[in-house]
Amino acid sequence: MEHRNSTSLTSPLPLREAGALRNLGTVSHEFFHAYNTERIRAQGLEPFDFQRVNMSDALWFGEGFTQYYGELILRRAGYYDDEQFFEKVSSWVNARLNSPGARFTSPVEMSRQAAFTDAAVSIDPTNRNNTYLSYYVQGAGLALVLDLQLRQRYHTSLDKYMQAMWQEFGKPQTPALAPTKAYTVADLQRVLGTVAKDTAFAGSFFRRYIYGHEAPRFGENLATMGLAVVPVKALAAALPRQVEFDEEGRCILVRNTTIGSGLYKAGIDRGDQIMTLDGEKIDNMETLEGIMRKHTPADLVPVRVRNRAGQERAVQVVLTEDTNVQVQGMESVEKMTATAAQKEQRAAWLASAAK
Ligand SMILES: [Zn+2]
User: Fold this and answer.
1) Which of 8, 121, 138, 154 could form a disulfide with 196 if both were Cys (CB 3.0 to 4.6 A apart)?
2) pLDDT tens, 246-271?
């Protein structure tokens, strides 16, 4: 948990090998909170009330920008290589582009749902998959796009923006180190206009992406760093990723199906059992993967399904391909090259500024 001068963490993960890096991810994020959220403080969180919900419009900044820096710092400090960092970038892009809810709901509105998602009740089964997108990943994606735009168009950076926020809102403190001035979303926009020296840009960014729900332009902004957004397009993995086999070998959907997917359109949802697919009994992962490999996207296959209430029915399901993308350096993509200028920009972005 984050504090103003420290962070204290309890983790069941080991401190060596793969576990160490995941622990470091938590350390990096939580320790950054000593700066962003504890010192640079949102007005909605003050004064903090342990009896009621403190509703905030700015968790896409408090949590999301912290998420972005938590990962970027690990790259800058050399704990991640480029590929590991781009995997995180890909996950933010995918989360936003695949979220049905984010097409209709702004980051400000997602932030207001915190009490239902970032709290004890968040483990309840709901249809939030289709209506909600976490302000952690959504905010990280916004921080990414904003950082790239500030670098490309204004020859400044998100680092400079955070420093400007620190000067105005973090630095003035009471003797007990509490912030004397909390920020609002309007303040976040104003400071962006000052740092970019372009208030029209700040206004348009907030109108479209913070108060509005336009999708950030990941592709064109990542391209300025010589990074390509490559569709995964794999069919084989799409369905197996959503199911688990219980001890009796029943193939059960463990995630909500997403609006637009073939399963969703066929009325199949979380908790349902896929009994047969394409005429074959499905009782293990190998069989399922084997059938998927024989097909191409848009194939129509017969499915026998038993729903949560125990009713069986036969439906036709259109197989949809994986809609995820992968962010990678243009130099490693066929028929693409990153220019020297793009590579230089990328190196400056990912390099540590510590002397
Ligand atoms: Zn956090």
Assistant:
1) 154
2) 999 999 999 889 898 889 999 999 99
